Amino acid sequence: MSTIPSPNLWNWPEVYEQENRAQDVDGAIWDALRADAPWAGADVVDVGCGDGFHLPVFAREAASVIGVEPHPPLVERARRRGLTVLEGGAAALPLPPSSVDLLHARTAYFFGAGCEPGLAEARRVLRPGGALAIVDLDATVAPYGDWMRADIPHYDPVAAERFFVRRGFSLRRVATRWAFLDRATLEAVLRIEFSRATADRALAAVPGLEIPVGYRVHVRRFSRG
Questions:
Q1: What would be the CATH architecture of the domain defined by 7-222?
Q2: Which residues form the Methyltransferase type domain (predicted)?
């Protein structure tokens, strides 16, 4: 299976770093993960970790942390954070069977129908009782969801939710706040995320430095067999 490019992160990693810093400034996603898939003392793998931005958060409490990323330049960037990062994709994880307690994927690969090979790999590498935690943008929530659907009209966010719920995942909706230090950074982020027309529309709708953004957190624990 070929890797699906991530143009925003692959082409503008420095801007995406600023986007990561602006996202979820109140830690609402981390609170949801702590409630549904705690990682203290666990062996954690972050799938599609990009340049490893989230790895240090897990590393503060986990027994071990590994990032897995398919794009070689991002693997090198992620390794600069001083943690273990392996090159690989969600459908063929470079990990032995039953070696992981928590598999985390944030806005990476697990977008609904078509990710079945990744679900099978999660089952393979997770220990009995281990969890797969999927964090994705909630495109049913305005205004960010409206901009997403404007640029990818074929995407059905309700169908994506149902895909995971039918497969035994929980569904938690999380309201977050993106907060930017200045207008130039906000504009740069919106322009790597959206088409020119949609970015212009978004910028006109955001007078300040903050954007409310909704997420979905899906968690499933896998038993043996």
A1: 3-Layer(aba) Sandwich (3.40)
A2: 45-134
